Predict the 3D structure of the following.
Amino acid sequence: MQINNKQIKKQFEKSMQNYDKNAVVQKTMASKMLTKLSKIKNHYDTILELGSGTGILTTQIAQNLHFKTYYANDLIEKSKIYIQKSIPQAQFLCGNALKIKTAKQADLIISNAMFQWFENLDKALQILTTQLNNQGILAFSTFTKGNYKEIKELTGLTLEYKSTDEIENTLKNNGFEILYIENFTKELKFNTPLELLAHMKNTGVNSLSENTWTIKDVKTFCDKYSKIYPSVCLTYAPLIVIAKKI
């Protein structure tokens, strides 16, 4: 599918109020990343967080890392309110993560559950590396092949998720040394297919489609799901990467 930043912004803006209580997997991803990162290095001069959203990652950074300057970025202006609750002195940059400019280069660029929205990871890394100091660290979590496999099978809607090997090779080709990489799967269970759809809506993932589903579309999905799958679940396939610019 073609990624539409306006659509992504619209859907995530709608989901912000309910995002935190539904973002179970995203919280696990942020926690795993920060736990490992803080053991590798926990003091930074300048940090740039991309896709800061409701501050799930920001809160954990404030609790686990030491820094002087903090930049946070998101497509949605309202994200600034969430970020400054955890880091009052944070400088917020609203807009496309690949088009913002910070006053100084970062020692750490970090992002949680956002890199899958980069249509061209190679190009994204080429841009981000210019904002990162030599020996600076890039830490991010994303999703790989097999993510939302149930949705792909039933609707055909999916992002072009890369494999772990593809992501690792792209990083190496752009001058990064892998310090840590981990992939895992997580199944979330629901009582009904309708609950599953509500979960996706409340985490902004209905950005996968530009079309608004009708009541008939929802019923067709639920009926089809019940026929194919004995239990209602949604499969996540997260990946955590910590790399150093060399």
Observations:
- The chain has nine helices and nine strands.
